[in-house]
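Progress against Task 2.4 (sequence-to-structure conversion) is shown through the following example record, which the project officer requested during the mid-term review.
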Amino acid sequence: ETAARLAIAAAVFGIGLGLYARGLLGAGDVKYLAAAVLFMPPAWQAVLSWLMLVTIAGLPVLALHRLVGLVAAGGRFPSFSEPGYFPYGPAISIGLVTMTFLASGPG
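Structure tokens generated for the chain above:
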């Protein structure tokens, strides 16, 4: 089981590294995804479900990020002033917590 988890984490890290090289994902997000996937059950279905949850969680997080950028924070953070920059860590965390809750089952 440990070897399967490490293999999945290495695959996620490799894919994330490719996305980072193209400028589509930040290095911190890639590392966080690879570390967080170690908490998933070692099955591709669980990992894909988790990535779908991360993607779905990213939409309201992005909307909130843009709203806060317009209302309060202005240019104090790079993610508000640089186009295309968005920290995906909160969405990764929401997906991880949700998947952990769902995997624990009832009771």
